[in-house]
Specification:
The chain has 445 residues and is an alpha/beta fold. It folds into 2 domains: 153 residues, no CATH class; 213 residues, no CATH class. It is built from 7 helices and 26 strands. The strands form 4 sheets. Strands 8, 10, 11, 13, 14, 15, 17, 19, 21, 23 and 25 form an 11-stranded parallel sheet that branches. It has a 7-stranded parallel sheet with strand order 12-9-24-22-20-18-16. The mean pLDDT is 87.
Length: 445
């Protein structure tokens, strides 16, 4: 009896041990799932950080393409020996607008997020060297490069689309500890160990450029009636052009002008008067002047004025902007359109723009040459002044390219308006704002 009592509970112990073993297996399996979920969450966190870094790099690159001169750390520069981001990394063919990378694919801009903020490098002769991480925390970084569109598989027989370039960005969660860009930020590598890495790309296209290039040296929405014994000289002898000197939506009085067209053609045949296409009626709030502006720049003037690349120069009072103020704005912002809030008074010597770097200037009011011998290279668009419907010509400077006036043209100016097809091609293919092309974003090679 005593022996049986001493053996009671043995079965219970076995059952308890079996249950404990089962519970241990369940706990171990649960812990395994938790560890797996932890690792999955960490991977998702890193991949999201890398994607956000790459997206930031893409937006940064598009913004920098519309910026002015920069130094080697991608900061605004007032040194005219520095180039703009666009000039540094893109090469634009002035004849057809085809865009190709200006530097080797290894010479690219890159940025890393440090505790003190973003540290960026915009080299022009060697690969970028970023700040090496000084702690074990997250140091997200991105690197940008440009590729011609036809460097990818292209459709046979389809020509390259001008004004378009592909931007590729690689983003990662931590810059390479050595401070180089050959691991985490390598475009053709697998990235650093245990770090998130994403490569995205998008097409960017030039917009806000004068796609509706005028065909005449002087284009006016209203009548052209220049008086005086001293003549306004309007030339279009370019073999690449059609020889048109004046194109107007109203009547043209040629008695106050000296017209010169292609050799062998009579001057009288070089004018196009009363063209209804220049006097399109208003549609709702879209005025006749709005429609004329849109035919040149392919966008409404409010959109043009607020586009990222546009540089606005304040013109005080009726005196307008000085030539020096315009030259400074152009010097610091190559290949960006200049919007003057008032008239332009060319009151000092020195050309504005050049044959190789022409400009687009929107003048809200009259263009006056109070100093002779000055040439504006590019396209001058004369908007209607608040209290006038005519551009009153004054002075004896020169515009090489073309002039477009929303209203009529009058006055006694003796300027030279010279049509230059090469200059107009350059402003069409170089001056404007780069924007992301809808539907072109992708995250695969």
């Amino acid at each position: 009896m005593n022996q049986r009592q001493s053996q009671q509970g043995a079965a219970t112990l076995v059952v308890v041990m079996v249950l404990f073993f089962i519970i241990s297996l369940v706990a171990a399996y649960t812990s395994r799932n938790l560890i797996f979920e932890q690792r999955t969450s960490a991977n998702q966190y890193r991949s999201t950080q890398a994607l956000e870094a790459a997206e930031a790099g893409l937006e940064w690159a598009v913004s920098m393409l519309n910026f002015g001169r920069i130094n080697s750390t991608c900061v605004k520069s007032t040194n005219t020996s520095d180039t703009s981001f666009r000039q540094r990394y893109l090469s634009i063919d002035p004849a057809n607008g085809n865009i190709t990378p200006a530097l080797a694919l290894t010479v690219t801009p890159a940025c890393v997020r440090t505790p003190a903020g973003w540290d960026c490098k915009c080299p022009d002769g060697a690969p970028p060297t970023l700040t090496a991480p000084s702690d074990p925390g997250v140091w997200p970084a991105f690197r940008v490069r440009f590729r011609t569109v036809d460097s990818l598989p292209a459709t046979p027989g389809v020509p390259r689309q001008p004004g378009v370039i592909r931007v590729e960005v690689v983003g990662c969660t931590r810059a390479d500890p050595a401070g180089a860009v050959d691991q985490c930020l390598a475009f053709d590598g697998r990235g650093a160990l245990n770090e998130g890495r994403v490569v995205i790309s998008s097409l960017v296209a030039l917009t806000g450029n004068p796609v509706g290039t005028p065909v005449a040296a002087l284009t006016a929405g209203g009548p052209v009636n220049v008086a005086g014994t001293a003549l306004l000289r309007v030339f279009n002898t370019s073999p690449a052009g059609l020889g048109f000197t004046v194109h107007a939506g109203g009547a043209i009085n040629t008695s106050g002008m000296d017209l010169r067209t292609t050799p062998g053609s009579p001057a009288s045949s070089s004018v196009i008067p009363v063209d209804s296409a220049l006097g399109l009626p208003a549609i709702g709030t879209f005025t006749t002047a709005d429609r004329m502006f849109a035919t040149i720049f392919n966008m409404r003037l409010e959109t043009f004025r607020t586009q990222q690349a546009a540089v606005e120069v304040a013109c005080p009072g009726l005196a307008g902007c000085s030539a020096a103020a315009v030259r400074t704005a152009i010097s610091l912002n190559p290949q960006r359109p200049i919007w003057l809030t008032g008239p332009l008074n060319v009151d000092s010597a020195g050309d504005i723009g050049s044959a190789t770097e022409p400009v687009v200037i929107i003048v809200n009011g009259d263009l006056k040459f109070s100093t002779s011998g000055v040439t504006i290279h590019g396209l001058v668009y004369n908007r209607l002044a608040p209290l006038a419907t005519t551009w009153v010509t004054d002075g004896s400077g020169q515009v090489s390219g073309a002039v477009v006036a929303e209203g009529g043209v009058s006055g006694a100016g003796t300027a030279n308006l010279v049509y230059d097809a090469d200059i107009l091609a350059r402003v069409r293919h170089n001056v404007g704002t780069f924007v992301r092309a809808p539907g072109s974003w992708r995250d695969f090679q």
